[in-house]
Amino acid sequence: MRLSLVIDLHLTAQQLQDIGEALEDSDIEQRFHHKLLVLRMHHEGATYGFIGRCLNISQPTLRTYLLEYQQGGLERVLEDAATAAPVANAKMAVQRIEQLTGICLSESQCRRTMKRMGMSLKMSAPLPGKVDEQLQLEFYTQEMTPRLEQAAKGERKVFFVDAAHFVLGAFLGLIWRFARPFIRTAPGRQRYSVLGAVDSHSKEIITHQTTGKINAQCV
Fold first, then answer.
1. Residues 29 and 112 in one domain
2. Among 90, 103, 202, 214, which residue's beta carbon has the most beta carbons within 10 A?
């Protein structure tokens, strides 16, 4: 008995619009153009044999294209291009995808595609230039973890400590005026500092406020 390998896709109006926008670029690379045409022709009811003869592709290749889209949509077809390297905005993403695949998307289409893939704008986190990953791992496994286990048994207290420094000043914005306004603000560069400690298990918060410096004596 032969196993049916027919893949039946049902495209939404939005999916058809996305495919149509991608097909509008006359300079699109042939392989990706074929992928998108397969999806469009399949949706219009063309048979596997007809699609294969028109585009000169084999049945296994045709099924691969349909399966890619079935498993992940247009973003799966473009996944390698969209995730090759991080980009700062949709405009850069459009340029990167076009360079790698030949597909020219609009910025709005690119945003929709990236959101559907689970991407979003992420704030970068700084990593100290002299950080030693091995020393960090050793501290976590040999010093921090044993102390946390002792704290869980009530044998010691473990606190996570940090300080915040608030500047006594004004952050001025823009307003509509005929003349530039001057607003009285706090003098000098005075600061108000808050030293905080959070208990690792009870979540108790201890604070110390000062207009002076945060030093070992304050801690």
1. yes
2. 103
From CA 88, how far away is CA 103, in angstroms rounded?
19
* CA dist., res. 215 & res. 219, Å (int): 6
pLDDT digits (tens, 9 = 90+) for 78-133: 555 555 567 778 888 788 767 665 667 778 877 877 777 777 777 777 877 788 88
Q: Which two tokens stand for residue 189?
A: 């560069």
- Matching residue, tokens 């084999």: 58
Are 33 and 82 contained in the same domain?
A: yes
78 is in which domain, residue-wise?
A: 13-116
